[in-house]
Amino acid sequence: MKENILKWFGYLLFFTFLIISCGGTELTQKPIEDSYKGKPVSDILVIAISGNEHNRRLFEKRFVAHLKAVGVDAIASEKAISMPANLELKKKTILAAVNQYKNDAVIITHLIGKEQKDVFTRDDSVHRGFYGFYQSRYRDPGYSSTSTTVRLETNLYDVKTEKLIWSGQSKTLSKGPKDNIINEVIKAVINNLRQNNLIAPKSSP
């Protein structure tokens, strides 16, 4: 009976997504195939999918910088590939870049959702009597604001087999500047990849 419970618990851990928090970002990581554990990649082509050219360039640039900061070689698609007018890359173009720069992996990030919520804030402390309540509301009517939650999916692929190595979805509450949000998401992804031994510094030839 005890062995069955332990076995069931092991399956539960395997099939349940792992949730990791990094600052204001929550990262949900899918289980990793055993065949990819212990085989870190060290040279990555970074691709961001976005209809906004500025956002795409900014995200890729930051991702490359963060990867290089931990010793992993990386190049942004905007540096490696001439982007067509419709921003859609062809497979043969990506493979040509991968061969040229000798990447062993491709990482792709795209937006999967953006949720906005109106928030009303005011002092909700208890006041004595009707006039205490009236006076508190008169002096502090409260204020409305909008919070935005950004959800991104990031996938890491092996170049030789084209198989998915790692996949994660990030959820970030947008409170600060766009740069801060991008940095938070990228840090959460890279920290998780390092913890799972899926990326490592590139060794010298």
Overview of this structure, please?
With 205 residues, the chain is of the alpha/beta class. It has a single domain (17-115, 148-195), classed as ABC-type transport auxiliary lipoprotein component (Rossmann fold, 3-Layer(aba) Sandwich), CATH 3.40.50. Helices cover 37% and strands 32% of the residues. It has helices at residues 2-15, 53-69, 77-80, 91-101, 129-139, 178-195; strands at residues 18-22, 25-29, 43-49, 73-76, 105-121, 143-158, 164-174. Strands 1-2-7-6-5-3-4 form a seven-stranded mixed sheet.
Helical amount: 25-40%
Architecture per CATH nomenclature, i.e. the level-2 architecture: 3-Layer(aba) Sandwich
Report the CATH superfamily. Answer: ABC-type transport auxiliary lipoprotein component
State the end-to-end distance: 54 Å
When the domains are counted, the total is 1
Profile the largest sheet: 7 strands, mixed
Which descriptors would you attach to this protein?
single chain, 205 residues, alpha/beta, Rossmann fold, 6 helices, elongated, disordered N terminus
Summary of the model, kept short:
The protein is of the alpha/beta class and 205 residues long. It has helices spanning 2-15, 53-69, 77-80, 91-101, 129-139, 178-195, and strands at 18-22, 25-29, 43-49, 73-76, 105-121, 143-158, 164-174.
Secondary structure layout:
Blueprint: H1 2-15, E1 18-22, E2 25-29, E3 43-49, H2 53-69, E4 73-76, H3 77-80, H4 91-101, E5 105-121, H5 129-139, E6 143-158, E7 164-174, H6 178-195
Helix pairs in contact: 2-6
